[in-house]
Amino acid sequence: MPYHLILDGVMVVAYFFIAAQLSKNILTLNSPIPQKMIAGGLAGAFSLLLWMFVPGAQEVDLSFYHLPILIIGLFGGGVALIGAMTIVFWGLSVKLGGAIIVEPSVYFLVGMWFLLSILNRKIDNIWNRWVYSITLVTILSYFFDYYRYANQDSTPFWAFAMLSALTGTFTMYLILHVHRSRVAYTELERKNQKLSEQHDEILLKQSELSLTKQKFQTVVESVREVIFQTNREGKIVFLNAAWEELTLYKVEDSLNKHYLYYVVPEERTRNSKKISKLIDEKQARTRLEIKFYTKKHDVLWMELNISFSYDSDGNLLGTFGTMTDITERHKSEQILSKTLKELEDIKFAMDESVVVMVTDPTGVILMVNDLFCSISGYTKEELIGKPQQLLNSGYHQQSFYKTMWETVNRKEVWRGELCNKSKYGSYYWVDSVIVPLLSEEGEVHQFVTIQSNITKRKLAEQKLVEANDLLLKLSSVDGLTGINNRRSFDERLAFEWDKGCRAQTSSPLSAILLDVDHFKLFNDHYGHQQGDDCLKKVARLMVRELPRTTDFGARYGGEEFVILLPDTGLLEATTIAEEIRKGILSLQIEHEKSKVSPMITASLGVASIIPSEDASAKQLLEYADKALYIAKRNGRNRVESYKDEEIRTVDVSERIMEAVIVKDPVQEYINLLHSKDTHTWEHSNRVAHYAILLAKELGVSEKEREKLYLTALLHDIGKLDIPQSILRKASRLTEEEYTIIKQHPILGVEKLQRHGDFPFKKEILEGVLYHHERWNGSGYPHRLKEKEIPLNARLLGIVDSFSAMTEERVYKKGVPTEKALFEIHSQMNSLYDPELVHAFLRAMKTSIPEQQVRKMSG
Fold it and tell me: Residue 387's beta-bridge partner residues?
């Protein structure tokens, strides 16, 4: 008998039984690596014990040292095997030393590790892995162990193999059985614990339920609402103490009585039918308001919240719910209903007579009435949620609205007249009262605006004003030419003279007297009708040539006209006079009898004085008259100016030479532009005039103004190289033609640079090249922006644009001065330097529409 193998098997079973009992969790392939290593190490130590201390007669007897390693490898995988074999190899190396290399057991264990690694990856079921692994390991053990011990150990191989398989199988079963028992025990303990917890919870809930029942009973008896319950016949089966408090009927006397007994007689039938209908419809709950009688026969309004209870067949079991005394509320509702009716009547009356709007504290519209929609043209949907600025007509100045808002924000009522704009662009006037509504905290939470339509009254007032204006105009306008007459001129001269005398800074006032040459001969030859037409044309041209709205032109008498130019020196006034003289000549009105020209011409006298107490307005006209006399004496069709009581002839080329000493090529190109392109020359003269006005406003020195004047005269010199067919084209330019036009700044610089040095070359070239650059970088030719653009070019860009807008061309009509100034202002910060735009507006001193003034001043 192989007792030593039986003893080995008992030891293996005992070892793993003890290990399974001591281990909290069964070892698996998914167990943590440390757990696998420890289990493997312990199994390896036990295997080493079996191998080294064989309990047989000889040390060369067979043993089951391979079973612990095999079993631990099946449960713990390769990591557990490594832990076991590490211990075994360490023990073998201690016992055998260098002979371990030739020890067959070593290779037997390595082969077993290799086989188990493959089986663990390929086969999931542990019993299947056990069958394969015990079979293969038994075969391996025959070649590595049994064969070499066969001479010393008489145990048959079949007995060795059978004992090995039985021992291993029993051990596997025992491990799994212990694990299942532990799991079952753990589960049983868990369920017992859960049952214990549930029992404790039941006891706790019973305690809470008892407490809740007590609390509920206390609440039921203490609530002010009546809590009731009826049976299926409608008889009362439960009432709380509130019933007696409200109705004065005792609870015990009321039980088992039908609830309709306490309902007022006239309500009983209606309420009975209503309840029956709800029951038939199997309604779960409802709310009713029913009138009850108290014991003293007082009417008590009760709100009943009723719940219906049914059995499984849908038969009524009874009702339960609450009753709340709403008598006071019902009375309040009746009062409120009456009040609301009165308010509705008032609202109807207001809707038919006044315009109403409600806004929040920020001005957002919350409510409007129908009349508001009717007068404004907007629907309620278009108005509600929008700011009231939607109706702003732009008529009132910002200071007007500022005062209005300051008043209402002080929680005061504001009254005033407003001009609003309707949806369709028309204007209407309303007499407004804005009332601030205060919250409980005393803060404004809404504004109520009540308005009445006064448009008809305002239109009547406007017509009256217009009539008065017309009367005033008729008294101040020349009946023939339509321009100012002698009376209005005298008033304006007195005003400007007085203003100049009171001004803190001295500023010249200039006058131009104009006389149509040989007009009596014209009248005698062509007739008075033609003479009147001639005077009208001269008057229109004279007024059109005045650059500013502050300049004042009038018919002085007969064929004489007079012009008053505030804040204008002699040089600039002479320039304007020369432009007017050339303009009259360009009218091409035939005058065969003239001794000066075959066309109508005019002589002009210019004078300038700084108003003061030592001089008089009369002197200014006397000086202008003297200059006019000299112009006539010197051959007519000319401009003469009065200076220091000396008369001198002034034409454009002489004026330029007198202002600054100009050498070639500047003078050469001025003369060339004058002779070859009249339109560009006239435009350049206008630009130069406006440039000097702006420069004076900016406080530019006289020398810098001279540079600017020359630059303005030459700023479009490059257009001499642009085809006239493009410059004078009446229709819209093509993209290619516009590209050619945009080359004129570069062409102008190239033309000037062909010459050597000349006065102010740098400034002139900069102005010519960059006067079309724009503040936002959208200009040409180099797309400079803001302060990258030289100052003189930024200045020229503004006056050049203004002059181009107001001039008449073959392809467009000139726009009014006011409109051009408004356009310049609207483009500041985008096209033009905002600081220079404000200065230009001040220089022009224009009287533009009120809303535009407000925007510009902002």
Answer: 364
